[in-house]
From TrEMBL:
<protein>
    <recommendedName>
        <fullName>Protein-export membrane protein SecG</fullName>
    </recommendedName>
</protein>
<keyword id="KW-1003">Cell membrane</keyword>
<dbReference type="Pfam" id="PF03840">
    <property type="entry name" value="SecG"/>
</dbReference>
<keyword id="KW-1133">Transmembrane helix</keyword>
<dbReference type="GO" id="GO:0043952">
    <property type="term" value="P:protein transport by the Sec complex"/>
</dbReference>
<keyword id="KW-0813">Transport</keyword>
<keyword id="KW-0472">Membrane</keyword>
<dbReference type="InterPro" id="IPR004692">
    <property type="entry name" value="SecG"/>
</dbReference>
<comment type="similarity">
    <text>Belongs to the SecG family.</text>
</comment>
<keyword id="KW-0812">Transmembrane</keyword>
<keyword id="KW-0811">Translocation</keyword>
<dbReference type="GO" id="GO:0015450">
    <property type="term" value="F:protein-transporting ATPase activity"/>
</dbReference>
<dbReference type="GO" id="GO:0005886">
    <property type="term" value="C:plasma membrane"/>
</dbReference>
<comment type="function">
    <text>Involved in protein export. Participates in an early event of protein translocation.</text>
</comment>
<dbReference type="GO" id="GO:0009306">
    <property type="term" value="P:protein secretion"/>
</dbReference>
<feature type="compositionally biased region" description="Low complexity">
    <location>
        <begin position="107"/>
        <end position="126"/>
    </location>
</feature>
<dbReference type="GO" id="GO:0065002">
    <property type="term" value="P:intracellular protein transmembrane transport"/>
</dbReference>
Length: 133
C-alpha cells in the first residue's frame, strides 16, 4: 500500500513541476516570457493555474497519507537494551572480546580491582636498600 502511494506521490510531483514550468512568468523581470508562446491566451493560463492547484491539493493529501502510513507501521523502539547480557548458545562462537570490558580488550590493559583488606607487607625478594629518613 505504501509503495503505491509513494509512486502516485512521485507522479504528482513530476506533473506539478511540469505545470509550473509551463506557466507564463508574470513579472518578466529578466525580459523573457513575453509575446506569444505555447499557451499565450488568458483562458489557458487559468487552466494551468487550476491544474496546478488540483495537483497541489493531491500532493498534500498523499503527503498526509504517507505520514499516517509511516506512523502505523512504526514500532516503539528503545535505545536501552531491555534484557541483560545473554550467553551464547552451545556451539556458537563467543562474542568479540569474550565479554570483557573495553579496557581489558586493549593491549596490556587490566581492570583494577578494589582492595578487599589491608595486605601484609610482602617478603623481600632480594636485597633491600634502606629508606632515607
Amino acid at each position: 500500500m505504501q509503495t503505491v502511494v509513494i509512486v502516485v506521490h512521485l507522479m504528482i510531483v513530476l506533473a506539478m513541476i511540469g505545470l509550473v514550468l509551463l506557466q507564463r512568468s508574470e513579472g518578466g523581470a529578466l525580459g523573457i516570457g513575453g509575446g506569444g508562446g505555447f499557451m499565450s491566451n488568458r483562458s489557458s493560463g487559468n487552466a494551468l493555474t487550476r491544474a496546478t492547484a488540483i495537483l497541489a491539493a493531491a500532493f498534500f493529501v498523499t503527503s498526509l497519507l504517507l505520514s499516517v502510513l509511516a506512523g502505523l507501521s512504526q514500532r516503539p523502539t528503545t535505545v536501552i537494551p531491555t534484557g541483560g547480557p545473554t550467553a551464547p548458545a552451545p556451539g556458537e562462537p563467543a562474542p568479540l572480546g569474550g565479554g570483557r570490558g573495553i579496557l581489558d580488550q586493549l593491549p596490556g590493559g587490566t581492570q583494577p580491582t578494589a582492595p578487599s583488606a589491608p595486605a601484609a607487607p610482602a617478603a623481600p625478594s632480594g636485597p633491600e636498600v634502606p629508606r632515607s629518613q
